[in-house]
């Protein structure tokens, strides 16, 4: 309980000097509004959403995992994990030498049915499972092989470092349905539309239109998972019709909203 009488939803980070085995698992049920302080650790973290939508935020951007997707956080990267609704999460910590094959960047990964069952089985093992040629060590090895093969998804939102663009993007994150055109933003920032276009692409790797569309679609994940209607979410996201929203959603996620959350 916090000093003002409200429930403190900050999650505590495990105090580990090192991982006892190449893989370490945590199972958690998170209340709506749960969060961690920004932190780093000397191992990879895979945050896997069984239910709810997880958000992982870094200085470079934000990464979102709806049910049965996961966020891969490289060792040494400062990050925080938040959820605005009830969620169930499995975390896998991977020792640096066991995940040396992975790129040194945050990624959102699709958790395949086989990987899902392997994670479930691994979470039942003791923390200090037998090593060597044991069945438990073989399970950990197969799970690591499966993690290596997981397909990457584009559920990320890169943030610019340039201060003016960062202010622009922060305003849009706070209010995704803002309809200002690129020209209107350029006027507000006292620059030309062409200069702003080039800067946006250089800083984020996306055009302004692509970035704003991705923001709106990622922001829609949590209300959709919470049971809001597609029509309600589409209009709140700045789309003129549910059909336009569904088409854009399928273009980014590869499935419609209904298909995504049925799969979850």
UniProtKB/TrEMBL annotation:
Keyword hit for tRNA-binding:
no
Tell me what this protein is called.
Helix-turn-helix transcriptional regulator
Which domain of life, per UniProt? Answer: Bacteria
InterPro entries for the chain: AraC-bd, Homeodomain-like_sf, HTH_AraC, RmlC-like_jellyroll, RmlC_Cupin_sf, Tscrpt_reg_AraC-type_HTH
Q: Where is the signal peptide?
A: none
Print the keywords alphabetically.
Activator, DNA-binding, Transcription, Transcription regulation
Residue ranges of domain HTH araC/xylS-type in the record: 163-263
């Amino acid at each position: 309980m916090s000093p003002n009488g409200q429930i403190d939803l900050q999650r505590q980070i495990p105090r580990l000097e090192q991982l006892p085995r190449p893989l370490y698992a945590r199972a958690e049920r998170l209340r709506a509004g749960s969060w961690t302080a920004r932190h780093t650790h000397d191992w990879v973290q895979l945050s896997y959403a069984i239910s709810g939508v997880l958000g992982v935020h870094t200085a470079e951007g934000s990464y979102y995992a709806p049910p049965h997707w996961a966020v891969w956080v490289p060792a040494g990267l400062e990050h925080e994990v938040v959820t605005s609704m009830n969620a169930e999460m499995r975390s896998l910590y991977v020792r640096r030498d066991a995940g040396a094959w992975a790129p040194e960047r945050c990624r959102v990964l699709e958790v395949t049915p086989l990987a899902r069952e392997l994670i479930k089985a691994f979470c039942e093992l003791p923390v200090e499972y037998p090593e060597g040629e044991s069945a438990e060590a073989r399970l950990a090895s197969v799970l690591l092989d499966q993690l290596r093969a997981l397909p990457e998804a584009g559920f990320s939102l890169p943030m610019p470092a340039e201060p003016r663009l960062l202010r622009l993007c922060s305003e849009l994150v706070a209010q995704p349905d803002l309809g200002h055109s690129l020209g209107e933003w350029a006027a507000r920032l006292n620059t030309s539309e062409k200069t702003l276009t080039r800067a946006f692409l250089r800083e984020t790797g996306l055009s302004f239109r692509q970035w704003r569309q991705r923001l709106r679609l990622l922001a829609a994940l949590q209300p959709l998972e919470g049971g809001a209607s597609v029509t309600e979410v589409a209009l709140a996201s700045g789309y003129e019709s549910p059909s336009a929203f569904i088409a854009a959603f399928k273009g980014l996620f590869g499935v419609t909203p209904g298909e995504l959350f049925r799969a979850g």
